[in-house]
Amino acid sequence: MLLDDSLRGVDLVSRFDGTVVDVGSGTGAPGVPLAVSLPGREVVLLEAERRKCAFLEAWAPANARVVWGRAEDQPVDWAGVAVAKALAHPPTAVEWCLPLVREGGAVILWVGPSAEPQRASVVAEKLGGKLEDSPPGFIVVRKVGPTPAGFPRRPGVAKKRPLA
Ligand SMILES: C[S@@+](CC[C@H](N)C(=O)[O-])C[C@H]1O[C@@H](n2cnc3c(N)ncnc32)[C@H](O)[C@@H]1O
After folding, report:
1. What pLDDT digit, counting tens, does each position of 30-46 carry?
2. How far apart are CA 162 and CA 15, in angstroms?
3. How crowded is residue 114: how many other Cβ atoms within 10 Å of its Cβ?
């Protein structure tokens, strides 16, 4: 069930302080269930499609706010945790999410069994990140340095020309 799938990340997200940003929130997974489960945390529901943002506005709990925009156009190095489910292949998702996260924070991707963590790891190392031991169904990347110059690349480039 969709709700259970979002909630299996609560413990993992709780290990990192700070604002949680759900990148490509769509209809709110996993960001809305995480916000309800963690009422003390600020949650940003970041979504590129305006129509989906209108839907999210209607369902966002008090500790969540909706931002209409693409990950590549956001400020860098501010979130404690960036989460994403079904956003893009992991190498692209890491490239979109990691710049948003401050040092010491993490990207947590919900992934299927065919995900290739090694490819995500290659991208992470180019963007100030490091692949962590990750529980099944997740890829966890820790932000260990600031976002390097040149990132994020222009909107759409990470998908067209993935780094791994
Ligand atoms: C397949 S949907 C997944 C939605 C939700 N996370 C879920 O699991 O149901 C991917 C979403 O990411 C959004 N998206 C794609 N690229 C994005 C980007 N670069 N920045 C922000 N949102 C993006 C799309 O508009 C879409 O709503």
Report:
1. 999 999 999 999 999 99
2. 29
3. 7
To test ligand 1's pocket by mutation, which of 22, 50, 73, 87 has the most ligand atoms within 8 angstroms of CB? 87
46 SS3 class: strand
Q: 21: CA distance to ligand 1 center in Å?
A: 12
- Bond preceding residue 117 cis, omega within 30 of 0: no
Nearest residue (CA) to ligand 1, atom 9: 29
The string over 29-44, giving b where at least 16 C-beta atoms fall within 10 Å of a residue's C-beta and e elsewhere, is: bbbbbbbbbeeebebb
The ligand 1 atom at the shortest distance from the C-alpha of residue 22 is 6
Q: Is 70 in the pocket of ligand 1 (CB under 6 A)?
A: yes
User: pTM score, two decimals?
Assistant: 0.98
Atom of ligand 1 nearest to the CA of 47: 22
Is 90 exceeded by the pLDDT of residue 116?
yes
pLDDT of 100 strictly over 90:
yes
Which residues does residue 81 pair with via DSSP β-bridges, in sequence order?
Answer: 20, 106
Residue closest by Cα to atom 3 of ligand 1: 86
The 10s digit of each residue's pLDDT in 71-97 is 999 999 999 999 999 999 999 999 999
